[in-house]
Specification:
The complex is a heterodimer. By secondary structure, chain A is α+β, with helices and mostly antiparallel strands. Chain A has 9 helices and 7 strands, in the order E-E-H-E-E-E-E-E-H-H-H-H-H-H-H-H. Chain A has 2 domains: about 100 residues, Ubiquitin-like (UB roll) (Roll); about 140 residues, Fumarate Reductase Iron-sulfur Protein, Chain B, domain 2. In chain A, helix 2 runs parallel beside helix 6 and helix 6 crosses helix 9. In chain A, about 45% of the residues are buried. Chain B has a domain of about 90 residues: 3 helical TM bundles of succinate and fumarate reductases. Chain B is built from 4 helices and 2 strands; from the N terminus they run H-H-H-E-E-H. Chain B starts with about 25 loop residues before the first helix and ends with a helix. The chains are: A alpha+beta, B mainly alpha. At the A-B interface, strand 6, helix 2, helix 3, helix 5 and helix 8 of A face helix 1, helix 3 and strand 2 of B.
Amino acid sequence: MAEKIVLEIARYAPEKDEKPSFQSFEVPFRKEWVVLDALNHIKDKVDGSLTYRWSCRMGVCGSCGMMVNGEPKLTCATFLSSYGNGATVRVEPLRYFPVIRDLVTALSDFLVKLQSVKPWLIRKDEPPLSAGEFLQTPEQLDIYKQFSMCINCTLCYAACPVVGLEPTFVGPAALALAQRYNMDNRDQGAEERLGLLAHPEGIWGCTFVGECTRVCPKHVDPAGAIQQYKLKAALEWVKGFILPRGSEDQSKEVRP
Amino acid sequence: MSVQPSTEFHPRWYRAPVSTYWWMGSWRYSLFILRELTSVAVAWSVVVTLLLLRSLLKGPDAYAHFTHRMQAPWMLALNIIAFCFLLLHTITWFNLAPRAMPVRVGGKRVPEFLVAAPNYVLWVVASAAIAWFVLRKS
């Protein structure tokens, strides 16, 4: 008996469909194939109109995130063999994102949120070029490195119920990235970002479901980053309460 | 944060509605909702403890009345349920503590279980001390 696996793929054509529907495709079951290989097989051999994003095929670009059997996954890292020969696997666009076509989601809202946290090095004083580069020890790098591994695949947004229920919530990846810059000893923008993010649509919107961390393919731990950020915000608030003036000078070293 | 509903090339985006029962979709979400609900049990336990203290301060009659009321079957059932929720509350939050508080020693992050463990140790010690105090023969 030939080895097969069935993919139930969400199809949506905005010019004619009211809402998405599922279409089944039978593909060969090969143990070295990932879900993305099966999608490519369908697009090449069965139905060229199937639309989805992908690029690197090696878990780096973050383009091929989809819901596989209800779980946010990078399809380039999800093997058919983990579902077994003859299985039916449901492939849908990432949850909570608007769907443009088939498996392609609209990312503009996410990109606006990402930019809103100012994910770049903010300096209050800009030393002259002749002063050389900003040196950093391995320990200083290690403090934020985990949070810098994000590939913007948005799996964490699809895992976060708050994102679905509160569309204005800045969301896990963007908040983790803000924390990545806060923890970078070259950065001086923590205070500025705290003003932007210590509100109900920012860090206080997070209810610590923790699913973002579980689904993250790069082990970024956005949930941890946000809780550490909350702790920092709470301490800053207390500091401002006790030392109304003393808390102002925190430009140099801001550590959570 | 504005979202562009559509563009010339994207005539209509489909937005799936979020079900009211989204938390039943996976046991992890259900566990999260249960964890959040434990706050009700925590509040209830605080009220019971305060009432206990008040009856103690008022004297033996008030204390006897309080303990009698606490022995009602429905009250026992309620408190057993509350106790289970308190256990869930404690365990889930102790396990999450290392994520919110990454402890670093000598530039290296301390393993998660070493951050969670002291919480459990303190919990056991405090519980043992209270049990000894309550159950000792006077």
